[in-house]
């Protein structure tokens, strides 16, 4: 008997319910090996010699993936909620652009240690809310005066170190930022971001890739045949299970077209994930039209820069026609509704994306709140307010909704629930927070199945926010109503990082963050 198939070395997590294959299974166990991979999900009665961890009144769900984060922005939470008096605000109208000035005032002052402390705080809160992997859209590279540190990736390394301390998996999406914008003078407050040409950016990216490449494939892990081979062939993206890199051209505003093309070519060659802010603000769209005669989505598409490794972050100010073409490329969208509502960005037309089967993932972005369930429910709620309609995001096909007898594949797989209920909106939103997020940033988790990592969280079925839910109502109760207090255990690669709602290093992290805030403000 090999070690990995020996039940004595395996751990069986035995809750009341496990969310597997889109439903909650009662009386099942999640069995993991010593390497932190899921061996199987079986009926609890079939367990033999595994070490049991009983979790009465708990449900296990796959860990959530936060696909868009700027960790350092945690320091400005609560500090931008007032009307400003700046040259940008001549009509007494605050916006994303006036908020950005306030954000820059923090971004220009943080030391490497501050960035580590702020990132730890953001990642701690993510862990406490059931997130097990994060895509960090990282654009602070240099010292405040714009001079590179001796290690050009010093700040990226601080962010990766912070994620490692918390126990989160991290995709460090290294940001390229070349200019203030079309026909704009350089902005000294962006000096920390700027790498003026693609060659410099790619050299620094490769250095970062080399440093996260070290951990090797674990022995005895339940990998697909050939997985190791493909990793050797992909030296940059997926060398480590806990941290890896991706490419993030900041936006069409900040990265001119030729630079952008070089980055995309490189990412495609090396199979790296690509994330980019797209159409967050109407002004970004109009300036792009001025510069290129095309909207950002049209520019990306006509230049053949979109693919299934591309995630467009926000993608709010787009037309239905552009969405139809975007869908053909296999690219996906990352919505950040708690930030988008805070900044007055607009509403992601998720119903149009769904209609064209564009996958959406979720991000907490500016960390005005860190609660991916809130982002999930807002994706739906913003559309309800806009359309005066309920259950807008339904995976039932439009033809079914219009009375056609034909059922979609997605609806078929929902199965029939008692009383005719089908919690398809909750399921759609939870997929955005899990499988779609994992796909977007290239994380190994997203679902609970054999061979996947044991990345999961538990909810307390007696928590007042969800108490009384039946098996069938549990997912909508969790997605639409759970509070963070309901989340009790969070496990990454089989190892608990949160137990009984607490992280082991929580006190120290919060204390250091309090000190940082006192120093900054
Ligand atoms: Zn962002």
Which range best describes the helical content: under 10%, 10-25%, 25-40%, 40-55%, 55-70% or over 70%?
Answer: 25-40%
CA distance, first residue to last residue: 60 Å
Number of helices: 18
Global shape: globular
Main sheet characteristics? 9 strands, mixed
Decide which structural class fits the backbone.
alpha/beta
Please tally the β strands and state the result: 17
The parts where pLDDT drops under 50 for at least 5 residues are: 215-239, 397-408, 410-420
Mean pLDDT: 90
The Rg value, from CA coordinates, equals: 23 Å
Bound molecules: zinc ion
| Binned strand content | 15-25%
Descriptive keywords:
about 525 residues, alpha/beta, nine-stranded mixed beta sheet, about 35% helix, about 20% strand, globular, binds zinc ion
Give your account of this protein's structure.
The protein has 521 residues and is of the alpha/beta class. Helix content is 35%, strand content 19%. It contains 18 helices and 17 strands. The strands form three sheets. Strands 1, 2, 3, 4, 5, 14, 15, 16 and 17 form a nine-stranded mixed β-sheet that branches. The chain has a four-stranded parallel β-sheet with strand order 6-7-8-9, with helices on both faces. β11, α9 and β12 form a beta-alpha-beta unit. The longest helix is centred in the first third of the chain and has 17 residues. The radius of gyration is 23 Å and the shape is globular. Zinc ion (ZN) binds next to loops. The site of zinc ion (ZN) has 6 residues, from loops.
